[in-house]
Amino acid sequence: VQLQASGGGSVQPGGSLRLSCAASGSIFGAMGWYRQAPGKQRELVATITHTGSINYVDSVMGRFTISRDNAKSTVYLQMDSLKPEDTAVYYCNAKKYQFSVASWGQGTQVTVSS
């Protein structure tokens, strides 16, 4: 599975960005977004299963929304009310099937700064 992420950029605090990640084939397992800030470990942001079950890290709850279009094998991350601490490289992740090894996208930079 190959993943192509897009949609990163720079925005002021309180702004919004929408990330997209398209997979090269059908995805029947979970898809998700992770992020890695400078000097920190990669952390889970949000995941969504093929049937739509969603999980968020507490720090983005109520501000970020994950969704997926199974027909397009694409996962999205709508990020609202962005904060400087959301600054990181965001990576998408997908499993072909539930117990497959996960594939990773190339990462897209999100910078929140005034």
Description:
Helices cover 0% and strands 48% of the residues. 33% of the residues are buried. By secondary structure, it is mainly beta. Strand 9 (88-94) and strand 10 (103-104) form a beta hairpin.
Question: Which tags fit this structure?
Answer:
mainly beta; 114 residues; 11 strands; four-stranded antiparallel sheet
Describe what is shown at a glance.
The protein has no helices and eleven strands. The chain is mainly β.
Please estimate the helix content. Answer: under 10%
Model regions low in confidence, pLDDT < 50 over at least 5 residues: none
Distance, first to last CA = 37 Å
**E-strand count:** 11
Total of helices: 0
The shape, in one word, is globular
Mean pLDDT: 96
Order of helices and strands: EEEEEEEEEEE
Percent strand equals over 45%
Rg on CA atoms, Å? 13 Å
Which assembly state applies to the chains in this document? Answer: single chain
Largest sheet, if any? 7 strands, mixed
Structural class, by secondary structure, is mainly beta
Give me the secondary-structure topology.
Elements: E1 3-6, E2 9-11, E3 17-23, E4 31-36, E5 43-48, E6 54-56, E7 64-69, E8 74-79, E9 88-94, E10 103-104, E11 108-112
Parallel strand pairs: 2-11
Antiparallel strand pairs: 1-3, 3-8, 4-5, 4-9, 5-6, 7-8, 9-10, 9-11
